[in-house]
């Protein structure tokens, strides 16, 4: 049986750091409130002129270097993002060109903060059915460009960056064991950006009404996120006949420390089995899971044959999980 195995990981965040103290000067908030309610201390945000494909490209280079994979070997590039450089062409095509990955079919997936897991699941299918040998997946965002820095309910949360993995078709027990994806579009208006699409294209009015920024009912999203992340995690465990104790590391979407903590408690996982880096990056949407995978990997938090549970939730709503044997 062939499996899709992660053979390289990479990440990249912009240099500019926005601290909680910086935000205190912009909106009515406090370092103490942000840390207590979210666990976030700082986030990286793009400078003028920087865009999603810049971070995606750097993260991809890091992952390909670790994998020892050249651009010509890549059969497919999938970028999970809700903030591509432009509506078309896709961020995936932009980085395909920068990388010189001429053989690769390239496309984006937009599934909110779950985009990376949707991309992982699609890539897993292509590899398992023999239609691809090597796939580059990147989760990348420049959320700061669609964040309303007058809205304290959202602007304290979001950060920019990218994470990437190279998947390879290999025989053996190691690799992706399962992916599970879920969506419920009836919750669309709890986390959305009204402007900039075909329904509300850019106009003087849409700009005045601040329609080109994310809007979120954070408290409602929080409650559904906890329930959905638990459901996705338990589905993954039961599908693979795994006990909770057998999981070596939970890498969850970094939306709020309290959400991750709640999932950890519901799954009876001790803190050392839960990866947290939200303090440094905030919520980077599609980039959060692959940045966390790369950091966990480079910090040697993941050992060969470890069982890794991935879990994510985001706008749509979308949510999902994956189990990997490293
Ligand atoms: O990426 C996937 C999707 N996103 C998420 O999963 C995010 C989920 N939501 C959250 O993380 C949390 O709901 C937030 C961090 C956004 C908000 O935390 P909360 O504990 O749900 O706060 P709340 O919205 O219920 O607000 C509590 C109070 C309110 O004041 P009153 O009405 O009690 O006087 C807010 O006005 O906190 C106030 N508040 C703030 N105070 C200081 C809201 N934002 C801030 C702020 N600084 N930045």
Walk me through the structure.
The chain is an alpha/beta fold and 326 residues long. It has 2 domains: 2-172, Thiolase/Chalcone synthase (Peroxisomal Thiolase, Chain A, domain 1), CATH 3.40.47.10; 177-325, Thiolase/Chalcone synthase (Peroxisomal Thiolase, Chain A, domain 1, 3-Layer(aba) Sandwich), CATH 3.40.47. It has helices at residues 20-24, 31-38, 52-67, 91-99, 115-128, 152-155, 204-208, 218-239, 257-266, 278-281, 288-298; strands at residues 2-12, 17-19, 42-44, 76-80, 105-109, 134-142, 160-171, 175-183, 191-192, 215-216, 249-252, 307-314, 318-325. It has a 5-stranded mixed β-sheet with strand order 1-7-6-4-5, with helices on both faces. The protein has a 4-stranded mixed β-sheet with strand order 8-13-12-11, sandwiched between helices. It is globular, with a radius of gyration of 19 Å. The two termini are 16 Å apart. The protein binds oxa(dethia)-CoA. Oxa(dethia)-CoA binds at residues 29, 33, 37-38, 113, 152-153, 156, 191, 218-219, 221-222, 225, 255-256, 259, 283, 313-314.
Number of strands: 13
Poorly predicted spans: none
Gyration radius, in Å: 19 Å
Question: Taking all residues together, what is the mean pLDDT?
Answer: 98
Instruction: Report strand %.
Output: 15-25%
Give every kind of bound small molecule, once each. oxa(dethia)-CoA
The global form is: globular
CATH level 1 name of the largest domain: Alpha Beta
Helix tally equals: 11
Question: What helical percentage do the residues reach?
Answer: 25-40%
Q: How would you classify the helix and strand content by structural class?
A: alpha/beta
Task: List the strand order in the largest sheet.
Answer: 1-7-6-4-5
What is the string of helix and strand elements? EEHHEHEHEHEHEEEHEHEHHHEE
